[in-house]
Request: fold
Amino acid sequence: MNYAKTPSVKPRDYLFDNYKALLISLVVMGHFIEPCYQNNDFLYTLKWLIVSFHMPAFIFISGYFSKRELPFSVIVRKLLIPYIVYEFIYYFFYIFVLHKETGLHLLYPKFSLWYLLALFVWRTVTPYVKKCPYYMPAAITAGLLIGLSGMQDNYLSLPRILYFYPFFLAGINFNRGTVTKFGKTYIRVLSAAGIAVFTVLIAFAPVCRSLSVKICYGRYNYDFLEQDMAEGILCRAVCYTIGFAMTFAVMMLIPERRTFCSYIGTRTMAIYLFHGLTYSYLKECTAILKNITTIPASILLLGGCTLLTVIFSVPKLTAFTNKVADLKLPAAATQTASLYFSFIRHWLRQKYAALRCFLYTRKVNTNLTRILFYGGRF
Reply:
């Protein structure tokens, strides 16, 4: 009797499914309370808590699942083509539903579509960035210095791409065994206590009232935030520290077993796309979100956000986003793009080789100068 071997299926890591389910819920809440978070202290504190870590954590997880390098054609198909498709969807939605003046500017991502463009850039350049020495400190430095730039805040989402890049790199370098190693009871208690203390500080610290939550967005430069260079860099460095600390603290509290909401973590793209359309309609065409003032109304709004998260996680919407991710460009366009980026990669390799040669020559000359100096003395 012949027995066919069943292919081994890698078990799901429910830790990250559960974490993504929480984070996508916070993404929805963070957007929907944007027009009204200053109406009461409860929403104000919640807004600060959400923006302090939800995107850093989401990007960290995206980096963790990007350890395996993909061919450029696959990256284009999985990320760049969906970005273009969704830009068209948002464009037509703005024009025909919201009746809002806009243009089809692919270099200026609409709403939350910047994240797809950022993932495309990160996955494309990271294999080359990792070959550079001290790439993590360099990425953090770039994230700090981009705040000094006067470029338009949404052009290719470059400010956000550079600001959030360290979290992506940290995810790539993250070892899953760390959670098991540090997942002790006392670590979980300390994590919960740290989150509680941070929440209290947000609620009562005067500094949070003097700063804008936009310092955590990574999109705006220091001039826009009314900060000088020293204040802006210091503030952004604190945001980095809080983002990393909260990402790991919350991770310590996430269950590693399958839960009732684990499936939501596997359908985040559909939720991410369709909640933005819903939010845009409510914001532009109604005054519902602006009129949330009381605590009961705020709780009702958060319940509605949770319900929308569940609704947009239905299989049919996920099937749609999966089909978009499987679209293929015509062969000519694919070859042209491949040749273009091959040229870019070749140019980067040349510059990197020239930099290494320059640094090596400088080191040799420095050592030679020292030898001559000491030889002259003796």
Notes: The radius of gyration is 23 Å. The chain has a mean pLDDT of 87. The chain has two domains: 14-328, 331-378.
